[in-house]
Amino acid sequence: GTYDHIRDTGFLQLPHRTTLNQYTDFTDIGCGYNPDIIKRLLDDHLTKVPSEKRICSLLFDEMKIKSGLVFSRKTGKMVGFTSLGNINDEINLLEQQMSKENITEPPEIATHVLAVMARGIVKYFNYPIAYFATTSVNSGQLYIIIWDGVAALEMRGVKVLAFISDGASANRGFFALHKLADGSNVSEDGVVFWTPNRFDKARRIYFFSDVPHLIKTLWNNLKKSSVNRTRNLMVGGKEIRWAHIRNAYEMDLNKNSLAPGLRKLHKITFDHIHLTPRLRMRVNLAAQVLSKTMADYLELQGHEHTKQQNISFEWLTGSLIV
User: Fold this and answer.
1) Residues 236, 308: contact at Cβ < 8 Å?
2) Per the database record, which ranges form the Transposable element P transposase-like GTP-binding insertion domain (predicted)?
């Protein structure tokens, strides 16, 4: 085949097919927490690490995928249906039977994948330990999935210190489910930010919203902010519009100026302003638009609305301005 031909020519140093098979076939691939992968995590990264340094955070994120069914010749099963773990699947089945007079329907075709990753804090490692096929997971389903992951790690001597996710409503709801009766784990702003570790009551697990995702969310909402669009952001009675950002870029790019090559917003490009669905996922573009450099340039323009935009940047991003 083509792969063997390229490998035989020596143009690219490619591994032998046997080596590839060893990587792909070392375990059965499927939804849920895979004990073989967790064992490999321990063998590759934590074999000689003392117990006090076996600390990690658990990251989880849900991604949109292309829906469809594929037949697996290895397992003889159709792949592409939702799979949220045994408990969640049984709950979904029970709900179907109770609501539809015992008429059981096949699982839905998945539209999203929830990925769960363990990331080392003292000893560096990034290891995906599970994935689940979903149609947009809810907070109750997350509760079961994430605590199953904590159990899988804690029982193997890996201590979980934090949960990290983006600001999706399901994730915020998942954090809120951990509110204690006495309210001791709730901040002054009403945010639940830690919970006791079920497997060691002396330790806490802290909740974090991933900062890059928050920046990207703010950026996307700002892009939609207009009188005639889906958002109309306002601070102190003043509007915050994407048009202000676009106008600042065009003014800085002014090719008719005496020095067209000299720019204050030298990192801002066409891609920052004219976004496509793919570009909206670029966190670095969001951080560069929501930067102190942009805020200073808006203030330099001297217009009333751009002064307000600068104030709004500082209010919205707070310490995120760099």
Assistant:
1) yes
2) 213-304
